[in-house]
Structure formats: structure tokens, C-alpha cells
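Whiteboard transcription, Tuesday session. T.W. wrote the C-alpha cells on the left side:
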């Protein structure tokens, strides 16, 4: 099995011409491309301070609007939950493309810092329990309906699709060839039957670290091939989408400015 995996990835390195003088050079190229993908993803989906700003605005809109509605219906004792941001402890290092997409481009290694931050936030904020009298439940549900019954930290920020950048990479024949042995590798070498990534890696949690280590070993050939296929595509994609990227950045900056004007 390992002989097959190594042969495939060596072919990928040679085909994309990114090997340079040896494995260290190709590894550096893969790492640099992964860093560029992370930076692009964060620029689109928000830096940590931008996510906190958007969440603060969402809190004012959702919790403030719900409270106003409850009071308008005579439930004057209702009070919003105190603000406690999901992204309170996040840094930019916790963000990036990550490994939650079930893609060959997912980061290698453990579940990732974002997963761990999400778990910590979930422990603080869930379950979202309200101290409501039985006769107030229907009114509360009507008041939260305009917000899709979503908590303030479940908000939609500015975004744009990366599909036309990443889908051709995943469909590249060399990448697909490198990915083909993945399931057999996970099963034959490590004893795991993996259907849907990443869900099958996360549960049960008692075996999560071992599964992610196996995933990194078995997916590395496809990951390397994918990053080498992605490398020459990023700059042209950014050039084609310069106006859209600029618009998304402006939207995030505006959210930060709007949040700065909120009362503290």
C-alpha cells in the first residue's frame, strides 16, 4: 500500500513541477500554498475581530429585537440573555480553511484549533435555556421567528464562494488518482472504515486523535497533489475576482465600524 501511495504522490510532484531540488522544497511549497489558502479563506470569511464585531451586531439585532417584541406583547419582565460571544477567545490562527469540508484540501493533523475553540464556545453557550413561563413560550417563538429562531451567535457574515477555485483542483486527474487509495489505506493499515469525512473522524471522541493521525497518513499523497495543483491557480483566481474580494473586505470593515458605534 505505501509503495502505491508514494508512487502516486511522486508522479504528482513531477507533473506539477514544484519539487525543486528535493522533498524539503516541495514540502515548503505545499506549506506556502496551504498558508495562502488559509489567508484567502480568512479574508473572505472574516478575521477574528471582524467575526466578533458581526456577532455583537447580531446580538443587538436578535436579542434587542426579541426583547422589544416581548415587551410589546406585555411581557415586560423579559430580559435578553447577557452577551457572551462565540468568538470571544478566537484568534486569526484559529481560523483558515481548516479540516471540516471532507475534502482532500482539508488541513492535515488533528481536528484543528477551530474545532477546539468551537467546543469551548459550545460548552459556554449551550444549551440556550430561557426562563420563560409556559404562557410566554408561544409569544417568544413568535418574537424569534423573524430571526429564524437562531441564536445571535449563529449569524451570516459577508462571504463569497471558492468553488470555482477549489472544485477544479479536487477534480484534477492527478489529485483523484492520489486520493483513490485513501479508503483502503484507512481500512487496511489502521482498521477504520471511513464514509463521510470529517464526521467519521470525530466520533467516538475516544478514538478521534488516532483517526486523525491515520487520516493524515493516508490522505497526505492526495493533499500534496491538491496543494501543488492549487498553487498556480490562486493568483489568477484572485485577479479575476478582485472586485468581489474588495467588496467582501469592505463589508467586513463596515461591520467593524458599525460595532464600534454600539454603546458599551
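and on the right, the sequence the group agreed on:
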Amino acid at each position: 500500500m505505501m509503495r502505491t501511495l508514494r508512487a502516486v504522490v511522486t508522479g504528482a510532484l513531477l507533473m506539477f513541477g514544484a519539487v525543486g531540488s528535493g522533498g524539503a522544497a516541495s514540502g515548503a511549497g505545499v506549506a506556502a500554498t496551504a498558508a495562502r489558502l488559509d489567508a484567502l479563506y480568512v479574508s473572505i470569511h472574516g478575521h477574528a475581530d471582524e467575526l466578533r464585531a458581526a456577532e455583537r451586531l447580531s446580538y443587538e439585532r436578535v436579542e434587542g429585537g426579541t426583547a422589544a417584541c416581548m415587551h410589546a406583547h406585555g411581557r415586560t419582565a423579559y430580559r435578553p440573555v447577557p452577551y457572551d460571544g462565540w468568538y470571544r477567545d478566537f484568534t486569526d490562527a484559529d481560523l483558515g480553511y481548516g479540516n471540516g469540508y471532507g475534502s482532500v484540501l482539508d488541513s492535515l493533523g488533528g481536528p484543528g484549533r477551530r474545532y477546539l475553540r468551537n467546543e469551548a464556545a459550545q460548552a459556554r453557550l449551550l444549551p440556550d435555556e430561557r426562563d420563560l413561563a409556559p404562557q410566554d413560550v408561544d409569544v417568544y417563538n413568535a418574537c424569534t421567528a423573524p430571526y429564524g429562531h437562531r441564536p445571535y451567535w449563529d449569524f451570516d457574515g459577508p462571504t463569497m464562494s471558492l468553488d470555482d477555485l477549489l472544485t477544479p483542483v479536487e477534480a484534477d486527474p492527478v489529485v483523484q488518482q492520489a486520493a483513490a487509495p485513501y479508503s483502503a489505506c484507512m481500512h487496511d493499515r489502521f482498521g477504520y472504515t471511513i464514509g463521510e469525512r470529517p464526521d467519521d473522524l470525530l466520533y467516538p471522541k475516544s478514538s478521534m486523535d488516532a483517526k486523525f493521525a491515520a487520516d493524515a497518513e493516508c490522505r497526505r499523497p492526495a493533499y500534496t497533489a491538491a496543494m501543488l495543483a492549487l498553487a498556480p491557480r490562486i493568483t489568477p483566481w484572485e485577479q479575476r475576482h478582485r472586485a468581489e474580494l474588495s467588496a467582501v473586505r469592505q463589508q467586513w470593515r463596515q461591520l467593524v465600524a458599525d460595532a464600534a458605534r454600539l454603546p458599551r
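Someone added at the bottom: The chain has one domain: 2-260.
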